[in-house]
Amino acid sequence: MSPGGAEYVLEGRILARQREPEGPFGEFPGQYSGGHSYPVIEIERVSHCKDPIYEALYLGVPWTEMDYLCAVNTCAPLHVQLKKDFPEVVAVNAIFTLGFIVIVSTKRRYGGFAKAVGLRVMTTPHGLGYAKIVIVVDETVDPFDMKQVMWAVSTKVNPAGDVTILPNLCIDLLDPASEPAGISHRMIIDATTPVWPDRRGNFGQALDSPQQTDEWRKKLGAMLKELRT
């Protein structure tokens, strides 16, 4: 990327084989990261445009401005990456702590398809370092509406076959639950309705408004209007 459009340009050099302790810093999971040994950069020159804008973010216990600003930057790329391989994907919600939890709504080609989508989430460029828990729901469930998501999890999930644990995968070093740091089990929760050849469960026709509901609503509204007049 050309520095021509930058607000600030820092010029310097990385000092070979030199490291210094840095931190602890407050980080996006809502905890201090602790101190670490990092390479040393020696800055020789700072340049900036006229009336430069200096951008800084406050990090703390979610939700902070960083969480809101990074939400779109997390959801949109994941959606694009998933759609390349799985055009059935409808929407991706990765707003929770930079995508440690990812919720995907998708159509299903066949039984077990949702788990394949969950695995793909974890192997995207973003998912490699995040995507610790992936919840997959039907295309009729809004992944941004947690009431709908929790309904799907509570009624569609049988832990015996719908929860998949993948051991000892890479994760962002700042995940406080990782042990050792940077290594964590990951989980896929299949909260979709089983389709052939997966015949598990007893899922009948979903509840919906009775037939002619809209017509009766109009009739009743007209009757009430006449009574008022």
What is the structure about, briefly put?
By secondary structure, the chain is α/β, with parallel strands linked by helices. The protein has helices at residues 65-85, 113-122, 146-156, 159-162, 213-228; strands spanning 8-22, 36-48, 89-96, 101-106, 133-138, 163-170, 183-191. The chain folds into 2 domains: 3-48, no CATH class; 65-191, UbiD C-terminal domain-like (3-Layer(aba) Sandwich), CATH 3.40.1670.10.
Features:
229 residues; alpha/beta; 2 domains; two-stranded antiparallel ribbon
Can you offer a commentary on this structure?
With 229 residues, the protein is α/β, with parallel strands linked by helices. The chain folds into two domains: 46 residues, no CATH class; 127 residues, UbiD C-terminal domain-like (3-Layer(aba) Sandwich). The strands form two sheets. A five-stranded mixed beta sheet has the order 3-4-5-7-6. The mean pLDDT is 89.
Topology-level CATH name of the largest domain: UbiD C-terminal domain-like
CATH level 1 class label of the largest domain: Alpha Beta
Query: What's the CATH H-level homologous superfamily of the largest domain?
Result: UbiD C-terminal domain-like
Q: What percent of the residues sit in helical stretches (DSSP H or I)?
A: 25-40%
Count of spatially separate domains: 2
- What Rg is obtained from the alpha carbons, in whole angstroms? 24 Å
Count of individual helical segments: 5
Adjacency order of strands in the biggest sheet: 3-4-5-7-6
- Quaternary form: single chain
- Largest beta-sheet characterization: 5 strands, mixed
Count of DSSP E strands? Answer: 7
- Poorly predicted spans: none
Query: Which CATH architecture of the largest domain would you pick?
Result: 3-Layer(aba) Sandwich
The shape is extended
The helix/strand class is alpha/beta
- The proportion of residues in beta strands is 25-35%
> N- to C-terminal separation?
70 Å
Order of helical and strand elements: EEHEEHEHHEEH
Average pLDDT score: 89
